[in-house]
Amino acid sequence: MDRLITIERHILNQEHEHPEATGVFSNLLYDIALAAKIIARETRRAGLSQLLGMAGTVNVQGEQQMKLDTFANETFIRMNAGSGRIAVMASEESSGIIPIPEERCCDGRYVLLFDPLDGSSNIDANVSVGTIFGIYRRISESGPGTLEDCLQPGRALAAAGYVIYSTSTMLVYTTGQGVDGFTLDPTLGEFLLTHPNLRFPATPAYYSANQANEQFWSAGAQRYTRWLQGMDPDEPSKPLAARYVGSLVADFHRNLVGGGVYYYPADTRNPRGKLRLAYEAAPLAFVAQQAGGLASDGRQPILDIQPDSLHQRTPLFVGNRSLVERAEQFIQRYDRD
Ligand code: AHM
Ligand code: MG
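Above: inputs. Below: predicted complex with magnesium ion.
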């Protein structure tokens, strides 16, 4: 790449390709990028929390210290609630919809769903965590945004992406014109375009799943795993390497860059799976589709599922299209309903 492209410049360039754009959507993406920078700053200091005060303790100003996931949630809400661009929000950390103050909601045309800090149980071990977000257009005509605005199938997403807080901080997003990745330059405080037009490599390298749960999986998921390991008795295949961070964004991102599949199937303890449809599975499904991949619950595309509640769970298989289609085949062959 011969010149630096900041995320602001990139968003603006994309806006120019849409003469009908009003700029509202662009500003919404800026707000998300800024929230990501604030959360990145705090996650970097997480290891110092014992020194500087952790959740449940009181800081020097006499304020209660927040847990990082609460902090991330409040940051996202604060950055977006007053912008006038959003009609309603929903988050993994909030039980109901997050209404926008009356005076700011009613012109908002967009709906923001997010998981502010996914994999936060990994923070104590200094392992990568992430933020996942999805943006819809509102479907209610006017007034405050509604629950129905938040319960749209992934096919209706206008934009989606994630932030990974790791050795570097990256923001990866799509507006339906491919997937671009930006790396935060901490000295500039800018996200720079480092991974334009991300696509899953044609030849996958990895599979990612919590195999300790295998005893609780269906026969289809078990047979699929044998196949990924090159041990299926009927269908020889090249074995993939196993990698599992236990942070969805980190596992997804590695598989996007190196090729592979992440899966968290239904099991006898979690018959509907563990992950959440609206703000974990659907946004990543949109990113995957735009990167040439696929996401499925094992029987149907994640993007086709109409959510019926905010925190609904779903089984998830996501990554290289060929690997996800294989999962569907194994499930169809070995599992009854
Ligand atoms: P969370 O939303 O409570 O953080 O849970 C989601 C996380 C994902 O990041 C990760 O892929 C998965 O749960 C790990 O689950 P497990 O510990 O059961 O393997
Ligand atoms: Mg989560």
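The chain has a mean pLDDT of 92.
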